[in-house]
Amino acid sequence: MAFHAKSERIVLAGPQRGISIEGAQALAPFLFELIPQWPVLPPMVSNAQPADNSVAPADIVVQAEDGHWRISSDHMALSDYSLDAGYMVANTLVGALIAAYVAQDDSLVSIHAAAVRIGDGLVLLLGDNGAGKSTIATVLASRGQRFFADDRLILNMAPSGHSAAPVGISLAVAPKLRLPLPSNADTVYRDFVAEHSVMTWPEMAVLRPGPEQAAGFGEALPLRGLIHLRRRPKAGKPVLTAMRQPAMVRILLEQLFAPHLGQQGELSACVGLAQKVDIWQLGYASAFEAAETVISHFNRGASA
To answer: In sequence order, what are the residues at sequence separation of 6 or more whose Cβ sits closer than 8 angstroms to the Cβ of residue 26?
Structure first.
């Protein structure tokens, strides 16, 4: 199949320079629903111009033919997508964009986690797909905690001070929820989702919480705790227990993304996270009871 990409580029801000995306014009309406605050730069500042004045290669290339999409990037291994819905391709493009972002700075990594501010720092929620990260993060936001991420978060592993905790950086990516909502969802949560939904499908909703509920692009806070979620449908009340560092490191190795650092660099980053931040496991059945447990624990300033 012959693929093609239009020459026009979208250039988005990176930590060191612009990140250029070629061929994504058709996806732009979906893309900017997902990353509404990501700064857009003029095309000429995308990358340093080569000595021969030719156009620098794009960081990410989107190609399409008859509804079949391909996303190419040196920073992330991607597959072909036979999709006729632009949203799914745009969501994959966000992942490639985040990978290109962290590749510009050796102190940055990306982690597959939700994040919410509770008190003076961030609490990260870790777990496989379906563990409840997005639900609990948005339930916490509906209860007045500040939303930072529901799926991907940037971490600065080398903030000022050698012993300082890593810092989480929001890219203001819109949270996504599976539909229908849990049957035990209360009115407060249902109203929160209804008020902030900007795109909906029978199986999914994309939200855009306001600035009072969610962090803006580039907003940063130190990490306060890591929680590994274990959903147990027949469990009783949520139970939050301290974890041992080796167990958390194994989990982090599956969730942390920093190929520019190599395997040893990723391992060092995971060990550093587990050493510098309180680490917990949360067994739960109800996301709403789990959210109340997390708020109660961290508002007390409890530690292991």
So the answer is: 64, 86
pTM above 0.85, yes or no: yes
Beta pairing class for 220-231 and 121-126? parallel
Q: Are 67 and 83 a contacting pair, CB within 8 Å?
A: yes
Between the two ends of the chain, the Cα-to-Cα distance in Å is 56
Distance of alpha carbon 95 from alpha carbon 99, whole angstroms = 6
Both structure tokens of 60: 């990410």
Write down the residue that tokens 């936001």 correspond to: 141
> Alpha-carbon distance 163 to 108, whole Å?
16
Extended strands (E) in 128-260 = 146-149, 152-156, 167-169, 176-178, 197-201, 204-207, 220-231, 239-242, 256-257
Cα separations (Å) of 154 from 11, 122, 173, 255, 283? 19, 12, 11, 12, 26
How does pLDDT run along the chain (304 residues), one tens digit per residue? 333 344 589 999 999 999 999 999 989 999 999 999 999 998 754 455 555 545 678 999 998 877 778 889 988 876 656 555 688 889 999 999 999 999 999 999 999 999 999 999 999 999 988 899 999 999 999 999 999 999 999 999 988 765 588 999 999 999 999 999 999 999 999 999 999 999 999 999 999 999 999 999 999 999 999 999 999 888 789 999 999 999 999 999 999 999 888 999 999 999 999 999 999 999 999 999 999 999 999 987 544 4
Closest CA to 155 of 101, 74, 211, 93: 101
> Mind listing the domains of the chain with CATH numbers?
9-102 (no CATH), 108-299 (3.40.50.300)
